[in-house]
Recover the amino acids of this structure.
């Protein structure tokens, strides 16, 4: 891939993150053709481990886009890492505060500037006991209704072996298998122009998470359960 003009801080971030990922992972990457090289793009992914943002960033960067995550505001308060995250275009999410809407505004601004925004719709690492996708939060639906940007699903399996979210143990072995697959843009046309009511937002979100669940099932095998909610257990969401 030709060298991209991405600026000092982004180049620095690549030099820190990419070499360890190359040595640490044996990559089964598919579907990059579904990631357009330019233009506004919403990428949605399942979240299974603290390791998967690094894997996802590596995949998206090698697909030709800069990975701009919506991430917890707490990580931006870290003395050095927080400053770098701001410099490289990451977007803090202030959950449960009066500043919560700022993340959506920043994401809308990034999309209108033609950038790619990466979102974990679940908002956190899945709490489903076997790490299947759970029901998502409605931020991605709001973002799509506001911008109309294509929503491309990205399913992952394997990063949980690097950092196990149950035991919190880290395994840093060379060439650990990770699979990342991007699918075609999700067809959300039935909701074009609808009002952002709670019912519509949850329908859009459940549809997106259903696509991700089915993609994860294809990667890892077995039969995926219905989407899961921490508050209510498994829910029969198709």
């Amino acid at each position: 891939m030709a060298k991209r003009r991405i600026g000092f801080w982004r180049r620095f971030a690549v030099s820190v993150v990419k070499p360890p990922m190359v040595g640490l992972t044996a990559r089964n990457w598919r579907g990059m053709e579904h990631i357009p090289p330019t233009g506004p793009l919403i990428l949605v992914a399942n979240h299974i481990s603290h390791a998967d943002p690094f894997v996802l960033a590596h995949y998206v960067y090698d697909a030709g886009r800069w990975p701009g995550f919506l991430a917890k505001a707490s990580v931006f308060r870290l003395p050095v890492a927080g400053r770098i995250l701001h410099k490289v275009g990451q977007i803090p999410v202030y959950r449960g505060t009066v500043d919560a809407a700022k993340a959506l505004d920043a994401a809308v601004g990034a999309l209108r500037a033609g950038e790619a925004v990466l979102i974990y719709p679940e908002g956190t690492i899945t709490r489903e006991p076997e790490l299947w996708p759970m029901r998502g939060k409605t931020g991605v639906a709001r973002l799509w209704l506001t911008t109309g940007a294509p929503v491309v699903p990205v399913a992952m399996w394997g990063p949980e072996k690097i950092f196990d979210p149950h035991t919190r143990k880290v395994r840093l072995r060379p060439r650990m298998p990770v699979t990342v697959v991007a699918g075609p843009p999700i067809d959300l046309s039935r909701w074009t122009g609808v009002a952002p009511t709670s019912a519509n937002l949850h329908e859009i979100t459940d549809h997106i998470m259903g696509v991700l669940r089915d993609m994860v099932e294809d990667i890892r095998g077995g039969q995926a359960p219905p989407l899961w909610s921490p508050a209510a257990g498994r829910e029969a969401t198709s």
User: Anything to note?
Assistant: The first strand starts at residue 25 and ends at 30. The mean pLDDT is 89. Helices lie at 8-24, 52-62, 81-87, 100-112, 139-147, 159-162, 198-220.
